[in-house]
C-alpha cells in the first residue's frame, strides 16, 4: 500500500522522538530542530512553489499530536502555522523556528517570534521582539487567533494522549499492596475518565481541522478550544492522581506535559472567551442548536479517500 506524504512525515517524526529523553527537556532542542528542518517539515503547509508539500490541517494532525505527546521540545506546530500564514499572505516563509510566545530557553539566533503589528501579524527576531519586522502579511489578527486556537487544541489532544499513555504504563508497572495499580477499580475508573477526555478532545480537534480545510472552521475551532480547555482541567488532575508524588518530579515527563497543557489552554483565548464566541456565533445564525450540531459533524474534505 502506498503511503501518503503525511504518513511518511509522521513515520519520520516518530523516529525523531524515539528517545525517552525528548519529553524531559525544558529547553529548545536545537539538535532535534536541525533534523526537522532536514525533513522539510517547517514548510509542509506551504504550496509546492514555496518549497512545501501543500498539506492541510487534517494531514498534519497526527504529526502535531505526536510531537505534543512527546513534550514538544521544538515549536514545530507554531512554525508550520506561521509559514502557512506567511505563504497565504504572499510573504516568503523560512525554515527557522517560530514561537508564538517567549517561553523557550537557549533558542538559536535564527529563531523568530510571531507578533501582531496593528491588524497584521509579523515575524521578528526572537531575541529582539521590538526589532524590525522580518516578514509581513495582510493576514488579520483574527485569522491568527483562530489558527493559534486550533493549533493549541490539537496540541492539547496530543498531550492528553501522552499523559494517558504514561498513566497506563505507570499503573501497570507500579505495584501496591502486592498487585499492580491497574488492578484497583479506582485506578481503572480514573484511567477510563482520562481516556474519555483525550478521545473527546482529539475528536473535536479533528473535526475542526476538517472544517478549517473546508474553509468554514470558526465555530468548530471555538468548540474544539473550549472542549480542550475543559479537558485540561480534568485530565491533568486525573493523570497526577494516578501517578501520585512521582508525577511532579523533574525527572519524570508527566510534569512537562501538564505544564504545556495548562499554558496552551490559556493561549489564544481561554474557556470563557470561546464560550462567548460560540454563543454569539450560534445565535447569529438564527438557530443556535442546529449551528452547533453542524459545526460538530465530521466533514469530508476534497482529496480524502
UniProtKB/TrEMBL annotation:
Q: Name one GO molecular function term.
A: flavin adenine dinucleotide binding
What keywords would UniProt list here? FAD, Flavoprotein, Oxidoreductase
Start and end residues of each Acyl-CoA dehydrogenase/oxidase C-terminal domain: 151-261
A matching Pfam family: Acyl-CoA_dh_1
Can you tell which superkingdom this protein's organism belongs to?
Answer: Bacteria
Give a yes or no for keyword Flavoprotein in this entry. yes
InterPro entries recorded: AcylCo_DH-like_C (IPR036250), AcylCo_DH/oxidase_C (IPR009075), AcylCoA_DH/ox_N_sf (IPR037069)
Asked if Flavoprotein is a keyword of the record, the answer is yes
Q: What name does UniProt use for this protein? A: Acyl-CoA dehydrogenase/oxidase C-terminal domain-containing protein
Amino acid at each position: 500500500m502506498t503511503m501518503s506524504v503525511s504518513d511518511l512525515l509522521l513515520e519520520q517524526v516518530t523516529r525523531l522522538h524515539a528517545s525517552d529523553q525528548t519529553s524531559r527537556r525544558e529547553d529548545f532542542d536545537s539538535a532535534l530542530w536541525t533534523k526537522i528542518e532536514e525533513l522539510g517539515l517547517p514548510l509542509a503547509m506551504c504550496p509546492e512553489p514555496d518549497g512545501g508539500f501543500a498539506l492541510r490541517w487534517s494531514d498534519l494532525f497526527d504529526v502535531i499530536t505526536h510531537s505534543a505527546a512527546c513534550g514538544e521540545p521544538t515549536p514545530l506546530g507554531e512554525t508550520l502555522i506561521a509559514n502557512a500564514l506567511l505563504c497565504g499572505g504572499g510573504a516568503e516563509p523560512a525554515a527557522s523556528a517560530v514561537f508564538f510566545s517567549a517561553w523557550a530557553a537557549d533558542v538559536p539566533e535564527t529563531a523568530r517570534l510571531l507578533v501582531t503589528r496593528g491588524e497584521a501579524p509579523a515575524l521578528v527576531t526572537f531575541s529582539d521582539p521590538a526589532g524590525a519586522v522580518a516578514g509581513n502579511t495582510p493576514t488579520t489578527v483574527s485569522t491568527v487567533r483562530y489558527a493559534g486556537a486550533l493549533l493549541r487544541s490539537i496540541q492539547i489532544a496530543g498531550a492528553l494522549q501522552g499523559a494517558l499513555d504514561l498513566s497506563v504504563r505507570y499503573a501497570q508497572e507500579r505495584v501496591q499492596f502486592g498487585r499492580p495499580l491497574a488492578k484497583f477499580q479506582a485506578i481503572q475508573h480514573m484511567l477510563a475518565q482520562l481516556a474519555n477526555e483525550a478521545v473527546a478532545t482529539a475528536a473535536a480537534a479533528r473535526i475542526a481541522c476538517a472544517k478549517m480545510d473546508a474553509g468554514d472552521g470558526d465555530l468548530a475551532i471555538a468548540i474544539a478550544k473550549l472542549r480542550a480547555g475543559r479537558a485540561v482541567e480534568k485530565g491533568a488532575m486525573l493523570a497526577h492522581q494516578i501517578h501520585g508524588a512521582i508525577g511532579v518530579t523533574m525527572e519524570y515527563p508527566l510534569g512537562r506535559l501538564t505544564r504545556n497543557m495548562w499554558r496552551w489552554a490559556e493561549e489564544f483565548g481561554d474557556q470563557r472567551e470561546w464560550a462567548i464566541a460560540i454563543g454569539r456565533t450560534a445565535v447569529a445564525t438564527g438557530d443556535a442548536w442546529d449551528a452547533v450540531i453542524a459545526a460538530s459533524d465530521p466533514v469530508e474534505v476534497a482529496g480524502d479517500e
